[in-house]
Amino acid sequence: MMLKNLENYKLVLASKSPRRQQLLRNLELEFDVRPVDLDEVYPEELGMTAIPEYVAQAKADALLDTLQENELLITADTIVWKDEKVLGKPKTRDEAIRMLSELSGSQHQVITGMNLQTRAKKISFHAVTEVWFDEMSEEEITYYVDKYKPYDKAGAYGIQEWIGYVAINKIEGSFYNVMGLPVHKLYQYLKEF
């Protein structure tokens, strides 16, 4: 293990997202998965970076009573932010198509809030990535939605899927953040934990 400072900790990822699990595995870290079912609600007055940090903390709070002394809990929440509002996970085909139509030909931000917590210590942080989409036709949008069914993805898209290859022309920031886990930043914080 590269991160010798974590040898005395058992890592716990509070996420059922297969993407987050794979990205954390790619850091060559061993961890248990302990998903938390939580209504991802937040106070309306929160801003762009505060929203995912608030939800990541709420996920941690929901599991805090189950945390053992030697466990380090990792929680995360990712949002898509466009025109001063959150584009969450679409509930229907029509909502997914509407979201992608809104993202077409424009720029938006993807923000992941993260929380690292033991019984004795807590670190919260976030990562922001700027994403630019080319104009997409209605046919391209409906093709993507019907084939990939992006109902578990903020903003109704996965950058690692077909739409990322054909429609995203530029990003500034972490690619992996757009997938749901800013692994570079997470690694830096884990090194210092």
Automatic annotation (TrEMBL):
The record marks R19, T78, Q160 as: Important for substrate specificity. Its EC number is 3.6.1.9. InterPro entries: ITPase-like_fam, Maf-like. Keywords: Cytoplasm, Hydrolase, Nucleotide metabolism. It catalyses: dTTP + H2O = dTMP + diphosphate + H(+); UTP + H2O = UMP + diphosphate + H(+). Its main location: cytoplasm. Its cofactor is a divalent metal cation. GO terms for cellular component: cytoplasm. GO terms for molecular function: nucleoside triphosphate diphosphatase activity. The keyword Cytoplasm applies. It is found in: Cytoplasm. Coiled coil: none annotated. Belongs to the Maf family. YhdE subfamily. This is dTTP/UTP pyrophosphatase. It comes from Gaoshiqia sediminis.
